[in-house]
Write a structure and sequence with these properties.
The protein is mainly α. The chain contains ten helices and no strands. The chain is elongated. The mean pLDDT is 89.
Length: 260
């Protein structure tokens, strides 16, 4: 890359990339912020009607039990969509060179993309927390823990989105990863049920799913109760996020499927 004229870390360049990623999803806020809120409201409305009269789950009303899982599922989907669509969109339009040519190291590229995914996840979470609090009167029991697990979720799914974006060459391939990997892992990780109520084999499989710990951590943050230790969940998801970030850094360093 030649002589670095920006210090050991190009703060301005990284911030510029992060700001571009944030402005990109804010420009279509109806799709990136309003749509997840409407989807969450539909889930809560349908389940509240279909499961009316259901006994409490984990000591709380079933509708309250659903809130953390649906919130985290929205964070997961949006953080993944932000980084994956940004990279694939640049590849499809041929503008990925505009990101690769500036004096940004692989670590700085990784940080900029992850900042966009984390910011989108946090914004979706804040909007949903406010909406649920105003409509249902349900507020997080541990708000700082909710922020922490949301940031980890944004980093984990943002890194996964970078990996998927590098591998994919068109939006159909990203849609396939979303439909066959991200969505099933979200639905089968305790979003709509307690894992402890499942058969032992299914419960063990769920504990091998990192998404389970994200949803369980959000449930602890909201309700003060969970199926597993929140510290264990934070460690597992943090390790998974770090592993995917390292893989993303390696591929960005080599220009894998990004450079001719």
């Amino acid at each position: 890359m030649g002589a670095r004229r920006f210090g050991r870390f190009n703060t301005l360049g990284t911030w510029t990339l992060a700001l571009r990623e944030i402005r990109r999803f804010l420009a279509v806020w109806q799709q990136t912020v309003a749509a997840p809120l409407v989807t969450a409201a539909l889930f809560l409305g349908v389940f509240s009607l279909a499961m009316s009269g259901r006994p409490p789950v984990m000591g709380v009303p079933f509708l309250h039990f659903l809130v953390p899982g649906i919130l985290m599922m929205s964070v997961i989907q949006n953080a993944f969509a932000n980084t994956s669509s940004s990279i694939v969109g640049s590849k499809v339009m041929g503008s990925i060179v505009d990101t690769l040519m500036p004096p940004l190291s692989p670590v700085e590229l990784l940080a900029g993309y992850l900042a966009g995914g984390i910011a989108r996840g946090l914004l979706v979470a804040v909007v949903m927390v406010l909406a649920v609090g105003l409509v249902l009167g349900l507020w997080p029991a541990h708000p700082f823990w909710l922020v922490a697990i949301t940031v980890v979720a944004g980093a984990l799914l943002g890194a996964l989105g970078i990996v998927a974006g590098i591998l994919a060459n068109k939006f159909d391939q990203i849609a396939a990863i979303t439909n066959f990997v991200v969505t099933p892992l979200s639905f089968l990780s305790g979003t709509f049920y307690s894992v402890e109520a499942m058969p032992p084999a299914m419960a063990a499989a769920s504990h091998a799913n990192p998404f389970f710990y994200l949803i369980d951590g959000a449930r602890f943050a909201y309700l003060g109760t969970s199926d597993s230790s929140p510290w264990l969940g934070l460690a597992v998801t943090g390790a998974a996020a770090l592993g995917l970030a390292v893989l993303s850094w390696i591929w960005l360093s080599r220009g894998y499927r990004l450079k001719a």
